[in-house]
Every structure is written in C-alpha cells, then in structure tokens.
Amino acid sequence: MAKYFDVHPANPQPRTISTVVDSIRSGALVAYPTDSCYALGCQLGNRDAIGRIKSIRNLDDRHHFTLVCHDFAQLAQFVRVDNDVFRAVKAATPGSYTFILPATKEVPRQLLHPKKKTVGVRIPDHVVTQALVAELGEPLLSSTLLLPDEEEPLTQGWEIKERLDHEVDAVIDSGDCGTEPTTVIDFSGDEPEIVRRGAGDVSRFE
Q1: pLDDT value at position 62?
Q2: In which band, very low, low, confident or very high, does the pLDDT at 12 lie, cut at 50, 70 and 90?
C-alpha cells in the first residue's frame, strides 16, 4: 500500500519532505503535485521505478521522460544549452514548461530518446515540488500522471491513492494542482517546435 502524505501547499513540512526524499533515495516511486498537474517521480538511476512508470502509463521507448530541476544551474548540468536557447528557457522558468534538449553524459542512457539522444527538463513553479528537489539535491525523474485511455491527468491525492495504491509507494497531497499538463517545446532542432500546448503560454515561442 502507498504511504499518504498530507503536505501544506505554501509551507511544506520539512520533516515530511525529508521522509519522502529518504524513500525516493531508497527506491520509491511517488506521485506528487506540480504547477501543472500530478506527476510520477523517482530517482534518476532507478531502473525498477522507471519500468513501473512505463507500465502504469503504458509507455514505449520513444517517450521523453522529464528531469524536474530545482534551478537553472542544475538544469544546465544535464542538457546542452546554446546562447539563444539559454535566453528563451531562462525567461520561461520557473513555470509550466517542459523543454526537450540534447542530453549531456550525466543523463542515464535508458532515459534518452533512442534516436535524438534528447531528454525533457523543467523547473516548476510549485512550492512542494521545489522543496522535494531541493532536499533531493538532484533532478527528480518524472512523467505526467496520465493513465492510458484517459484524456486528463489525475488531480486529487485521495483518488490517486485509491487507484494506484499498489503501484506507487507514496502519494503527496497538497491540494488540487489543475489538470493541464506542461507546454512542451522541442529545442533539439534548428527552430523551436511546440510539441504540446499546455499550461504554459506558447506565444513567446511562436
């Protein structure tokens, strides 16, 4: 059964955040809120949890996982960013955007797009998510909590606990965080490509 953590949305309890992060370091797969919707998260090199995310979401090897980062300095360790992209990404973070960029050698191979060698990165504007990645000290490997054959992500912690009780190890509930996933911008080509229109304003990339 998944452990259930009720976390204050504006002032997350440090002890609770520390407990959750300890479980992530021990191999846990967690469902947690972001500034767009709920996500599934685990530690970078956790092959078992990555496999569980793929199973829950019915994903293939072409899926872009996302590294949820604390700040731009951390993000820049895991993706290659030239000057133009730097300015565009910097201006849009923190926020409800995921950026697809060429990965550095810091990213485990199983997380890369098999042909493009790219990975998704984002810096969320959400107090609880920021507290988690700050305590973890490295990006949280994530994927939107969108179940197969469903049009909208799950948004309520109690519902996630009921439906995924035996598939995740922990659920963090800090209130409703909306149903719209991030806007996804692919910067791996010559021009930015809007892959998904979501919570983030796309006008700056058009």
Answers
A1: 80
A2: very high
Residue spans of beta strands (DSSP E) within 96-139: 97-102, 118-122
Indicate yes or no: pTM above 0.90: yes
Token pair, residue 37, equals 């919707």
Q: Which residues contact 12 (CB under 8 A, 6 or more apart)?
A: 127, 128, 131, 174
Q: Is 185 helix (H, G, I), strand (E, B) or coil?
A: strand
- The type of residue at 156 is Q
- 97-120 tens-digit pLDDT: 999 999 999 998 888 888 889 999
3-state secondary structure 164-196: CCCCCCEEEECCCCCCCCCEEEECCCCCCEEEE
Cβ-defined contacts of 153-158 (< 8 Å, 24+)? 153/37, 153/38, 153/179, 153/181, 154/31, 154/37, 154/38, 155/37, 155/38, 155/179, 157/4, 157/6, 157/31, 157/33, 157/38
